[in-house]
Amino acid sequence: MVDALHAAHRALRTGGTLIDLRPNWSTHPPRVRRAGSELGGLRERDAARADSAASDRAIDRVMREGDFALIRAGHFWYSQRFADLARLDAWIATSPGTAGYDRGTRARLAARPDRPITLRKALTYAILARI
Q: Count of CB atoms within 10 A of residue 88's CB?
């Protein structure tokens, strides 16, 4: 990612804006909800966790090197709705960053497998200005 950030630095004018936007499961793991009640969460794959940590280090590095200045950073939540447990299971099976359910989460969902499920996920953002 450092190479990509250096390429972005070369492509931007001084004062130009770069937005880093990515999933953040390390500090804000996804939460599984049904009918307004939280029923558990999902686990992140080790490789995805390592990628996220490497991305954080890359952002820190280019800021230390003086390529970018941080304007603002944070996270926001968004929801993804699934019609039933089977659709959430299918999504988890194909999600490259998802390792599975937290302990007990799937059992709680299986009690009513035909009911809609909402997955709340966080995205981390950093707005950077080229120096």
A: 23
| pTM metric for this prediction | 0.83
Distances (CA, A) of 80 to 24, 28, 100, 115, 130: 15, 15, 16, 14, 33
| 66-81 pLDDT per residue, tens | 999 999 999 999 999 9
Over the range 90-124, which residues count as b (16 or more CB within 10 Å of their CB) and which as e?
A: eebeeeebbbebbeebbeebeeeeeeebbbbbbeb
> How many secondary structure helices (H) and strands (E) does the chain include?
4, 6
- 63: tokens are 């800021």
Place of tokens 């990515």: 22
Closest by CA to 93, choosing from 130, 23, 42, is 42
**CA distance between the termini of the chain:** 18
**C-beta separation of 30 from 95 below 8 A:** no
Please name every residue paired with 29 in a beta bridge, in sequence order, or none if there are none. Answer: none
Total domains in the fold of the chain: 1
Domain that holds residue 47: 2-130
